[in-house]
Design a protein that fits this description.
This protein has no helices and eleven strands. It is globular. The protein is mainly beta and 126 residues long.
Amino acid sequence: QVQLVESGGGSVQVGGSLRLSCAASGRAFSGYAMGWFRQVPGKEREFVAGFSRTGGYTYYQESVKGRFTISRDNANYAMYLQMNSLKSEDTALYYCAAGAGVITSSLRRPSAYGYWGQGTQVTVSS
């Protein structure tokens, strides 16, 4: 069992920055595909950024490339999402997710992940 806890959300103005953290406990952190997803009311949860199982590859949603950076610290069972140049459309509830056996072609699908945090709200206002 893997428990995930997100933190670091908040309210910022357009153009600002936030750093989200995901603390993992339970089973070994390494060897799991890890990802950040976000969701706004009335819409489906969408992939933001993620790591392959090996941690050697990172993937981003097109709209956040160049603005968001995902990183992980296997030794401390943590994952981060540095968000810069935030836009109003980045406003959402952000989730950390972990999945065992997630293949690359499924990395962007919420259904591929078996473990989720409770979410942290990010609000970007002008």
